[in-house]
């Protein structure tokens, strides 16, 4: 049986690599096409850093208390599922539609997707994943993550403007 803790760490490392790839190349890419709202380097890197730090905290909590606190496994599962969706929309979809690489696609499909699927399968086989019973946690987690991205970009723009001004 695959250890869920090891998969949690490997998945987190893959997401951190994915975030780093995006932070490095996505802002410039966003300014060269019309399908995606352009983002500045500073604002996007700020958002990617904050999301990465949040994932590190979540991973630590899930590793420490995930067996006793079912909600932590549910929140981690929601993050995994959100990253799987992110690999398809926008990464794979825009890369195919534009016939041009969207930054983050390779790291998503080579690391995040296989490790995320492995984590979900291992969690389910170990009785740590009950999606139907945890639907409210999934919904709240996705809503929080969905709202945090624009909020972090907004805050990043404010911080970058303040730094320039």
From TrEMBL:
InterPro entries: HXXEE (IPR025671). The chain crosses the membrane at residues 44-64, 71-94, 106-124, 136-155. The keyword Transmembrane applies. Keywords: Membrane, Transmembrane, Transmembrane helix. Signal peptide: none annotated. This is HXXEE domain-containing protein. It comes from Roseateles subflavus.
